[in-house]
Amino acid sequence: KLGTEEHIIPPLGGHTQTTDAAVQRVVFKLAAHTSSKWEVVANTIQPVRPGLRTLVLLREGRPDNMGHRELIDMLKFDDYPPPPEPPTVASR
Which residues have a Cβ under 8 Å from the Cβ of 41 and sit 6 or more positions away? Predict the structure, then answer.
């Protein structure tokens, strides 16, 4: 669920979502279908800023040092595009 929209993403699938500039944050919830039901496995609030791009990767959970394994790992990377190159001034 991204904001008020729900998306079902199959394994190895993807989804691209643009956001409205008037929105300041979007609720991001991730649920996985377990043996008999849907279970929320991640929940976060994503800020929306001009120029901010976010890449979210979902992968099978990996065990931690104690052997506990999350069902799904969510990795989130925020990225601002690089600033434009300053104009060059010709010298004589």
Answer: 30, 31, 32, 70, 71, 72, 74
- Which residues, 6+ apart, have CB-to-CB distance to 68 below 8 Å? none
Q: For 27-86, what is each residue's pLDDT tens digit?
A: 888 888 888 888 888 888 888 887 788 888 888 888 888 888 888 888 888 887 777 888
The pTM of this model reads 0.63
Contact 71, 43 (CB under 8 A): no
Nearest by Cα to 50 from 8, 10, 19: 19
